[in-house]
Amino acid sequence: YSDTTLIFIPDNYNPEESYPLLFLLHGWSGNYNQWNEIIPLQLLADAYNFIIVCPNGFYDSWYLNSIYEDKIKWEKYFIDVLVPHIYTAYNIDSALIFITGLSMGGHGALNLFFKYQDIFTSAGSTSGVLDITKFPDRWGLSNYLGLFEENENDWKNNSVFYLAEQKVESKPFIFDC
Q1: How many CA atoms lie within 13 A of 162 on its CB side?
Q2: CA atoms of 155 and 145, how far apart (whole Å)
Q3: What's the rounded Cα separation, in Å, for the pair 98 and 86?
Q4: How many Å apart are CA 138 and CA 121, to the nearest integer?
Q5: CA distance 18 to 45
Q6: Burial 59-98 (b: 16+ CB within 10 A, else e)
Q7: 102 and 34 in contact (C-beta within 8 Å)?
Q8: pLDDT digit string (tens) for 127-164?
Q9: In terms of Cα–Cα distance, which of 92, 118, 97, 107 is closest to 61?
Q10: What are phi and psi of 175, to 5 degrees?
């Protein structure tokens, strides 16, 4: 689940027209407003006729489903609740769905892109952690995936590095530092 999501629609939004959609995921220790504090998202939505969505990934969710039943299921929320809500509330061009993020959000963006290639046209990661298995004791990852030694498969199934090896479709994506 998410407690807050910022949505920027172009000032000239017309429900009879379809619009490209961009999901922006924030970094570790950030929140839904991080991107809007860095760049003027409403101006960009207006200039490029995009709908821009900034969900709250909380302090350290890594945009993952926890392996613990009583913990957050962020990925499930995103796929089962947020994406359908955006499709229902706005006229979205399903051929133009993009996702990107910063740091933790960069990992989340590529993680979701590789897992749900049927949804996204392209993805990006800026300074994203691409192999979370290298950091089993950092940034709260074990709160969601358990101890690496006990749950290595869960860690690999949620690590961009390993998901990229299984990439089936040929879709463009970018990562940078």
Answers
A1: 12
A2: 6
A3: 13
A4: 31
A5: 14
A6: eebbbbbbeeeeebbbbebbbeebbeebeeebebeeeebb
A7: yes
A8: 888 888 888 788 878 888 878 788 888 889 888 888 88
A9: 107
A10: -140, 145
